[in-house]
Write a structure and sequence with these properties.
The strands form 2 sheets. This protein has a 6-stranded mixed beta sheet. Strands 2-1-6 form a 3-stranded mixed beta sheet, with no helix packed on it. The protein has helices spanning about 1-40, 45-60, 80-90, 95-115, 120-135, 140-145, 155-165, 170-190, 190-210, 215-240, 255-260, 260-270, 285-315, 325-345, 360-375, 375-380, 385-410, 415-425, 435-445, 495-500; strands at about 65-70, 245, 430-435, 450-455, 460-465, 470, 480-485, 505-510, 515-520. β4 and β5 form a beta hairpin. By secondary structure, the chain is α/β, with parallel strands linked by helices. The chain is globular. α2 (about 45-60) packs across α3 (about 80-90), α13 (about 285-315) crosses α14 and α14 runs antiparallel to α15 (about 360-375).
Length: about 525
């Protein structure tokens, strides 16, 4: 009896230490990613808008009534995280960094789970190291998207959680939760279709062929179908209850343009993993250490190719009698990775480096695949274990050292802080402004200065920007100034269009490229607005 009690206490102590280690790991990841975001992400009005969406949710406006949002509204995805933070802390500029870092931390934790589903402690440690190196120490080029919101990382988190639920043990409750997650993803971001729903359905069909059994993939196909039905039904009910309005969808690429985007998309992926800086400017990491990221690109590409080859081979070969079906998750990740590349090909229209954000999800899937492939017992027990371990240790140390250079680099200059300082000094608290000057000013001032987005419409007068905005913003009785960027023509706001709409300004201030027109009377625009 005494020995059994001692053993029970020992097991309890071991479990407690394991829990403490996991908590410490999660906290450490969050701190590293938060600091990396601060030193890599400048922030813009896209990220600020999602903070203000969260503010509406935190105030109880769960359907975002009065908002006009893009097709990727993030209503039931990223906005929920921002709403939670705003509810607790209020609107603050640091949310532009710490909320994306929090979402990325959850992604790392789910990725570690998915990468370590094979047996063997040594294999698990190798997988954890690969995931940690790939997702906790991003180069600054990728951190601009990976650790900035809202760039579909909340969507990626939902999809990864769904992947964990639909593979392994087949239970109805797991399938139900997966369908709910995916439907929530669809409601907030249609990229859930290409990153999660369609890959799960396709992986289910592949499983039927590979296992020579309809039951092998029927559950996943059902989950994909159910998520679509739930999303459509929920949106219909929300519309009837007065939910936000969706702005017109953009025109998708033609097939020929989509196909021509595939190779550039692969090039961008190598840039984001740090093979070279490409169009993303100079890297703070020394060239010698940057070679480690070139090795990372090679390993990640090999892992993806091995998994893709295994999928294709499995379609034409009969499974062995002792098949443990570990390939189910590999297949799902491969298809989702291709879905991410397809998303880039379908949506990238200008070829600008900003569109590389569509590739972040695919990189995460590929890194998890790499961890699963190179941590398998067959690999870790081979005669190559020692030389591979030596090379891996050198690469790992170089990547961690490179992460130190990234977080020690100066934070990107946020020029609009000068505008915020001017508005504070002049006691200007409520105004209108071009989109790229508006919401970011509001958030950087911790909501002390409220600038609402406007645009010059087809008639030449300034109107509400009918995208990423809330109708109640435009009824403030204190609105008395207009901000525009003289170097940016996207919103077409000029001194002439301001005069034609609001009359002559009483004062004009200039700070950098921004012009602040202050009026002796209040200025207003209608709620209908215009979207270019």
């Amino acid at each position: 009896m005494v020995s059994e009690s001692i053993a029970a206490l020992t097991d309890h102590g071991i479990r407690r230490r394991h829990r403490l280690v996991k908590v410490a790991f999660a906290v450490g990841v969050f701190v590293i990613l938060g600091i990396t975001s601060y030193h890599s992400v400048g922030g813009n009005s896209d990220g600020a808008t999602i903070v203000l969406e969260g503010q509406s949710l935190a105030r109880g406006h769960l359907l975002l009534h009065g908002w006009i949002l893009s097709q990727d509204s993030f209503w039931t995805v990223d906005a929920l995280f921002y709403g939670l933070f705003v509810r607790v802390f209020g609107v603050h500029a640091w949310m532009l960094h710490l909320v994306p870092a929090f979402i990325a931390t959850l992604i790392v934790l789910v990725a570690c789970h998915l990468a370590t589903t094979r047996n063997g402690d040594y294999s698990r440690r190798i997988a954890l190291i690969i995931v940690t190196l790939g997702l906790v120490f991003p180069v600054s080029a990728w951190a601009q998207f990976y650790l900035a919101g809202p760039y579909h990382l909340g969507t990626t988190l939902y999809c990864l959680a769904a992947f964990a639920l639909v593979t392994g043990e087949q239970r109805p409750i797991r399938y139900l939760v997966a369908a709910l997650l995916l439907s929530a993803g669809i409601l907030g971001d249609l990229q859930t279709l290409s990153l999660g729903v369609l890959p799960i359905a396709a992986a289910g069909l592949v499983a039927m062929v590979r296992a020579w059994s309809l039951r092998a993939g029927a559950g996943r196909v059902a989950v994909a179908a159910a998520s679509g039905v739930l999303a459509i039904g929920t949106r219909e009910v929300a519309d009837r209850l007065g939910a936000f309005t969706l702005a017109p969808a953009r025109t998708p690429n033609t097939l020929s343009l989509s196909l021509s985007n595939v190779v550039p998309g692969l090039h961008y992926a190598t840039y984001l993993l740090g093979a070279t800086t490409g169009p993303f400017g100079n890297s703070p990491i020394p060239s010698v250490l940057n070679l480690a990221h070139l090795a990372e690109v090679v390993f990640v590409a090999l892992g993806a190719l091995v998994a893709l080859f295994a999928l294709l081979r499995g379609l034409v070969t009969k499974p062995p009698a002792d098949d443990d079906r570990h390939w189910e998750l590999d297949d799902l990740l491969v298809i989702a990775m291709l879905g991410s590349l397809g998303t880039y090909a379908y949506l990238a229209t200008t070829g600008s480096d900003a569109e590389a954000r569509y590739l972040s999800s695919g990189l995460i899937f590929a890194i998890i695949l790499c961890a699963r492939v190179f941590s398998r017992p067959l690999v870790t027990r081979s005669r190559l274990r020692r030389p591979l371990g030596t090379v891996g240790a050198i690469v790992a140390l170089a990547i961690v050292a490179g992460g130190g250079y990234t977080v020690s680099a100066p934070a990107p200059p946020q020029q609009i802080n000068a505008l915020v300082a001017l508005l504070e000094a002049r006691h200007l608290t409520d105004g209108l402004g071009g989109y790229w000057s508006a919401s970011i000013t509001t958030v950087l001032s911790d909501d002390a200065i409220r600038v609402r987005p406007v645009i010059t419409g087809p008639t030449g007068s300034i109107e509400r920007y009918a995208r990423q905005s809330l109708d109640s913003w435009y009824v403030s009785p204190a609105t008395n100034f207009l901000v525009y960027n003289a170097d940016v023509n996207i919103d077409a706001i000029t001194r002439a269009s301001a005069r034609a709409t609001f009359g002559p300004a009483r004062h004009v201030y200039a700070v950098g490229p921004w012009r602040v027109l202050v009026y002796a009377h209040t200025i207003h625009v209608g709620k209908i607005g215009y979207s270019a």
